[in-house]
């Protein structure tokens, strides 16, 4: 007696069964690398990609991952095309979602120009954000370019803590609690409401 359901369309694939197990399969014999899962050169000129289902902070024994060896990298595709909203597959999960345009395409921008005539405040530019400042949830990602002293001006973030990561040149910060010299490869966090 066969175990399972008899379908009108017969199964044509072989599956690797089991949860939390390690399996391997290959379309062409010898396509999987031996001795190393990330060789510099894969058999048949394939590209190595890791698809992880676990945070990188998880204990090693709990890591869930798949190693894929592809003919082309998954990033090698044409641009995505927006579909008609009548075929939308997402619900209205936020009051402002209708004004947003999610772009799944790979994005990059040219380096920003360094403006030596701008103060820190004048040189701030918003790159991205998520959440809502009114509910104190989420974050804002900004870039700055500054080359001029702020003089008698003061700045504070009422939205949340302000993490500053200089990339080029030192930043001399004067706060209500004292002075900080923050150089590239260092970070600085100014708490919310501190001038």
The string of secondary-structure elements, in order, is EEEEEEEE
User: Biggest sheet, open or closed, and with what strands and sense?
Assistant: 2 strands, antiparallel
Q: Outline, from the CA principal axes? A: elongated
Helical percentage? under 10%
Number of strands: 8
Strand fraction equals 15-25%
> Which value, in Å, is the CA radius of gyration?
26 Å
Mean pLDDT: 82
Query: How many separate domains?
Result: 2
Q: Give the structural class.
A: mainly beta
Instruction: Kindly report the spatial arrangement of strands forming the biggest sheet.
Output: 1-2
* Count of alpha/pi helices: 0
Description:
The protein is mainly beta and 195 residues long. It folds into 2 domains: 1-77, no CATH class; 96-195, no CATH class. 0% of the residues lie in helices and 22% in strands. It contains no helices and 8 strands. Strands 1-2 form a two-stranded antiparallel sheet. Strands 3-4 form a two-stranded antiparallel ribbon. A hairpin with a 4-residue loop joins strand 3 (125-132) and strand 4 (137-143). It is elongated. The mean pLDDT is 82.
